[in-house]
Amino acid sequence: MNNNSISGQIPPELSKLPNLLHFLLDNNNLSGYLPEELAQMPKLTILQLDNNNFDGAIIPVSFGNIPTLLKLSLRNCNLQGSIPDLSGIPNLGYLELSSNQLSGPIPTNKLSKNITTINLSNNNLTGSIPTNFYGLPLLQELDLENNLLVNIFGSADLPPNVTLWFALAALSFDFTLLKLKGNPICSNRSLVQFCKSKTENETRISSATNSTTAECKPQSCPYEYSPTSPLDCFCAEPLLVGYRLKSPGFSDFIPYKKMFEAYLTQGLNLFVYQLYIYSLAWQEGPRLGMYLKLYPVYDNTTNSHLFNLSEVQRIKSIFTRWKIPLNGTFGPVELINFTLSDVYKNEFNPSLSTSISKGALAGIILGTFVGAVTLSAIISLIIFRRHLKGYHTVSKRWKASRALLKIDGVKSFTYGELASATNNFDIFTQIGRGGYGKVYKGTLADGMIVAIKRAQQGSLQGEKEFLTEIQLLSRLHHRNLVSLVGYCDEESEQMLVYEYMSNGTLQDHLSGKIKKPLSFVRRLRIALGSSKGILYLHTEANPPIFHRDIKASNILLDSKFVAKVADFGLSRLAPMPDIEGATPAYVSTVVKGTPGYLDPEYFLTYKLTDKSDVYSLGVVFLELLTGMQPISHGKNLVREVNIAYQSGTIWLVIDGRMGSYPSECVERFVNLAMKCCQDETDSRPSMVEVVRTLETIGLMIPRYSDPSLVESMEVDPEMTSTTPPSSSSMVKNLYTSSYVFGSDPVSGVISTITPR
């Protein structure tokens, strides 16, 4: 009943309607107060009262406890008072309270993880932007423009010396979602990207274009080529449908496109490939108008190119009689037109043509084409990192600690020795670089090939981190941890010498820097090797260690692609038992790490735990599965995979470069990665569970003869014999647990292997 000029008070008696799902009275002349009795509707999913005048009424507290509600939209209603606690709405997906006179702080209670849109713009909200808005996996828009907000997180919540960009990245927040223009907080220069003017439809535009017909010959088809048919260049005549979602529960249609296609075709009893969304655009409301094409089923026995009369009548009847079941996510719908082309008009009775006016059709087509602009605003991610004070010099404190570096098994090199090993640090020996400086490949006097990490002046490699890495690596010995050969600390130099890893970093392979892609089996082995290295740190090192900077660039690969965890400069010792024998669960420490990999709970609480490493490792797992970076063009990998998983499109984000793979194994790997990346610490698995799950996945791999999978396996000495095995026995052996993953399934501590 929207746009009907209904006036007066909303009758509380409406709450007694037992089967009412959608309560839409927007764009009327309603006044008075909002009846709290509306919260008693047992099946209410959408409450939309936009553009009315409720005379300064407040939002009833009861509205925050409607168990079935999916969408609450009270835009421009002259509402006052505070925003109620909405944590009692378990599946709330859309919250629109903009253009009112709401005041006070934004509630900090946790919102539903299903929420896609939060619009609180144009009010008088004060205080800080609370952390309950971050880590929402499906969030598409957070609009807080034109309020009185002065801070993010709260004055005591943002860790010292941490920029906003770093903060949002650590909290898995998508930078393109946040709108802050018109708040006092915009006086902070670091927020300039969030305070720019944005066009009204900047994030509300989606389009669909035909990309499959370019290779088809136009003269061979008197109708159209179906862009979604499983048969290339299928020529057929579609039915044309104008359709509108009156109150959708999202701000961006793209993540829900495949869900919508499945929902609509199921309601029409058609195959998904018969539906093509020709174009769509957000309209005033906001409503989502779309122009659909429905193609007939391809029948190779009759070579049919048209719907028959009975099928056209059936489809039209479903639309016009509203036989498609309602869906809370897509909300109520309306049919704009059902159009028959001249082909069908000539073939069938003209009475089948739509009664919708040509003017209405022209209007929706024009509006669609005007609105169908691809989202092009990409906010570049700039991550500011903390700089050291002054230059990298040998302080008195560092000189006093040099005696601690005389550790057995770790050699102290002179500057001259390492300069000689690298031809005086020639540029041709450089194999990498980072915030700390550069990495060189060198050959020592005894012929040993090593990697030399050389810190430079003004780098992020502080003296404390340098000393920490030497002390830790000198006593850590595991197959999946990089070995420290020695160090140099003279002539204002800080250099660490490691075993050389000929296949570089995992990041090199996933980024495409190394062109030969990693197969699925090899990626699974890398995941397991990395996990065993971290498990050793957590459970078998004495005392245990939290790595604190697990990322793809800190996982190195040797000549056999064995994964080894590196860079312990930020590592911390796990808490030790107190005098009563109790062991604290965490270490209180300032936040350090890399945006995109950083545990959100650690970031907010300063409590570093073993589960912080689990989160970072989960992000690495997602990189292995998707080939995508943790943060790219303002998009956060954890959030993007969550969206794909929730919308049933997870296979679209799996990296196609890894070739053939068992789908069940990939599915379990995805589930494990997502569990590792849960926001709540207690929801993540332990490293023991991670390793055992990866072992189980390895045992599930079938006995493929796919060369790409066979190639990815390393040669295990125990599997080598003087008599070459048959091809069938080779495939069988490839997928035994000992061959694929080697050593102990839990700890991964190196076992002694005697070659045959």
UniProtKB/TrEMBL annotation:
Which part of the chain is the Protein kinase domain? Answer: 425-697
Which superkingdom is the protein from?
Answer: Eukaryota
| UniProt cross-references to InterPro entries, sorted A to Z | Kinase-like_dom_sf, Leu-rich_rpt, LRR_dom_sf, Prot_kinase_dom, Protein_kinase_ATP_BS, Ser/Thr_kinase_AS
Q: Where does ATP bind?
A: 453
The residue ranges crossing the membrane are: 360-384
Major localization class: membrane
Keywords, comma-separated and alphabetical: ATP-binding, Glycoprotein, Kinase, Leucine-rich repeat, Membrane, Nucleotide-binding, Receptor, Repeat, Serine/threonine-protein kinase, Signal, Transferase, Transmembrane, Transmembrane helix
Where does this polypeptide localize?
Membrane
Q: Name one GO molecular function term.
A: ATP binding
- Bilayer topology: Single-pass type I membrane protein
Query: EC number(s) of the enzyme?
Result: 2.7.11.1
Asked if the keyword Kinase belongs to this entry, the reply reads yes
> A Gene Ontology CC term for this entry?
membrane
Full protein name: non-specific serine/threonine protein kinase
